[in-house]
Amino acid sequence: MRQCTGCREMKNKKEMMRVLRTGDGEIVLDVTGRKNGRGAYLCYDLECLKKARKNKGLERSLKMEIPEEVYEKLAREFEEIEQTK
Length: 85
Hints:
Layout: E1 2-3, E2 10-11, E3 16-21, E4 27-30, E5 38-43, H1 46-55, H2 57-62, H3 68-84
Antiparallel strand pairs: 1-2, 3-4, 3-5
């Protein structure tokens, strides 16, 4: 079980998307859930990303400041994934 950094609900790991901070400090979506790095989890819902942005949940989980451009990039990637579902 993992906790969403947006809505704070506990869900199965497979029901969530992993946001990853790589070794060189890049923030990416880890769809496979297997890449190396520090991870935080979000529900497959754009609203949870918005909540995590507002409450700085991703920043706390990943232990770094996240620039606006990264949030915008994550939002675009989320929308693409939602369209394929």
